[in-house]
Amino acid sequence: MERPKVRGPTLGVEAVRGEASPDAAPDAEKERILSRSPLARLASPSRQALLEIGRLERLERRQTLVQQGAPARHLVLLGAGRVKVERVADGRVFPLGHRGPGDLVGEGALAGAEIAAESATVLDEGDALVVPLAGLDRLLAADPAIRDALAAALVARQLETEARLGSLLLCTVEARLVDFLRAAARRWGQPHAAGEVVSAPFTHADIALLIGSTRETVTLLLGRLKRAGLISFDRRRIVIRDAEHLAARAASA
What is the pLDDT of residues 160-175, one digit of tens each? Predict the structure, then answer.
């Protein structure tokens, strides 16, 4: 099994390296990423202070952003791409979700965790605003607006985790699949001739892990949604053809 890339010395064991996009100035790219994150509503001078300590990084496929058991050193704000977050316990791997544009990675350190409780690996190339915790701690001590924004982000992540747990316990597999498709479209959706395409290339096995099912069941249910005219496929990507009826399907499943 190929080990994930861990590039340094930029971030040590949580390496993120790369160059700013040649198509836009670094400051504009950093602003774009911040504007998609849970910290988007920060006003100056809080906004400017955060942008000044953060750096724009290019994320490469199979790169390790956070390593479970390693010291927490950075908060990562994703601008593009896809990151898999998982935890290993008793020799078993537990998928915690896939993060995409607008999401935070490594936010556990904001609650005081000195050691990362999960690993985060890049699945699809992208970019990010990487904020060193040493500088962020100083901002948190001096700026209530940043403290409040990050606290709200932690609460939102907790509520999302509780909703996912509730879905696993109370909803049918089809309802969980439809909820996953709608969430994926919100995060990775792009315009398509037939509707909206989920740009991230999720495999049936990926989806099965994330919704607590099997690959065979996911394949069966996706085929059912396709025959109903709600989705289609384009080069391994899922196309949402009828978002309104897909939402109604989730409510009735």
Answer: 999 989 999 999 999 9
